[in-house]
Amino acid sequence: MSFKDLKLNKPILRAVAEAGYDNPTLVQEKTIPLVLERQDVITSAQTGTGKTAAFALPILQLLYDQQDAPKKGKTIKALVISPTRELAIQIAKNFKTYASHTNLTSAVIYGGTSIEPQIDILKKGIDILVATPGRLLDLHKQDELNLDYVEVFVLDEADLMLDMGFIDDVRKIERLCPEDKQTLLFSATMPYKVEQLASSILKTPKRIEVTPTSSAAKDVSQVLYYVPKRNKIELCLHLLRNTVKGSILIFRRTKFGVDKLHQTLISNGYDDAERLHGDRSQIERQNALADFKRGKVNILIATDVAARGIDIIELDSVINFDLPNVPETYVHRIGRTGRAGNFGHSYSLCSADEKSYVQTIQKLINVQIPVENDHPYPLDPKAKPIVHKKKGSKYKKGRKSEASKKKKKRWY
Ligand code: AMP
């Protein structure tokens, strides 16, 4: 499915494209059409699934048709409540990005900072307000905001909101909005108290559940580095020097690749790197594995096939030097860390020709892998995959006859 299939209008589609999103995530595919139909919705989805855009995009679409001139008499038509400041800021940032080609305006208010600038922003008039509960109620008490025109009310991270003790505040805020509003509730988990809240404030809600594939282990942090193919080795060395710690399993697609990286690591002072692939003898493989398990070596470079069956409880990190073209392999690889209650880390290096693999992986695991752009070898987003043409003469075959070639006197 594409964003166009979701019937979003052009200015929003343009902003989505500029944000670098190619296709909607699963939670977006399922939630957006229901929000556009003005249904109440309960979505259980975690951060990382693309849930913010799942409510932000259709809200902008609904408000777009009735938007005013940039500064004309704006009233709050969408209210998003978030339990933490960080999350509220993040949500507001997303709204600004997606609304960049519309006249719709948004603001964020949260506690712990001076209230005056927030009052000034509210006075100017905005369409969308993102807020933490306490500060929102403060401002309402001071008569600085009017919730009489709210059409869509979003409760984000409802489970966390209740864990943080905001239940009464949430109920109060809900009552300050008009009765006939549309309500959307997002929660990573759906414990009884969230169900209870939902049943008291939502009207015949539709339910959506998007859980990340369980094996895309919850206890593994994932990071993606876009990097030109030619710089992968440098980036790998950079990560080994600065970021990746502990026992490290590095995956490469080919045996040749494993050997090449192994040599590079050895010549860069990583004498403790070992390698594992199908061309090594059984005894060599066993020794490599035993040394890694014992902690005698900290780095093991392997192909997928050779690494099958490795069960090293203490594995700290996985580096996907090459991304696998089979998405399940990614899940399998990163699942080797973060076991037995330990926290694991996975680092994936993606060159221009591997970008499509990222999409299929994300589709499978229902998680957008966070991208780290702050590294010394960034990939130009417009870079095209390098296609290696077959080597051979640059002259067309058969351009000259054999006879003429023989006749030709060469000067050397
Ligand atoms: P969220 O679950 O809303 O916190 O989103 C997680 C990350 O996914 C954010 O960095 C978003 O910018 C990104 N994201 C959201 N939707 C998409 C999409 N359709 N394609 C790619 N990335 C997305």
Can you give a write-up of this model?
The chain has about 400 residues and is α/β, with parallel strands linked by helices. It has helices at about 10-20, 25-35, 50-65, 85-100, 115-125, 135-140, 160-165, 165-175, 190-200, 230-240, 255-265, 280-295, 305, 325-335, 355-365, 400-405; strands at about 40-45, 80, 105-110, 130, 150-155, 180-185, 205-210, 220-225, 250, 275, 300, 315-320, 345-350. It folds into 2 domains: about 5-210, P-loop containing nucleotide triphosphate hydrolases (Rossmann fold, 3-Layer(aba) Sandwich); about 220-365, P-loop containing nucleotide triphosphate hydrolases (Rossmann fold), CATH 3.40.50.300. The protein is built from 16 helices and 13 strands. The protein is elongated, with a radius of gyration of 27 Å. Adenosine monophosphate (AMP) binds next to helix 3. The site of adenosine monophosphate has 12 residues, from helix 3.
Give me a quick take on this structure.
The chain has helices at residues 10-18, 26-36, 51-64, 85-98, 116-124, 133-141, 158-163, 167-176, 192-201, 232-242, 255-267, 282-294, 304-307, 327-334, 355-365, 402-407, and strands at residues 41-45, 78-81, 106-109, 128-131, 152-155, 182-187, 206-210, 220-226, 248-251, 273-276, 299-302, 317-320, 344-350. With 412 residues, the chain is α/β, with parallel strands linked by helices. Strands 3-4-2-5-6-1-7 form a 7-stranded parallel β-sheet, with helices on both faces. Strands 8-13-12-9-11-10 form a 6-stranded parallel β-sheet, with helices on both faces.
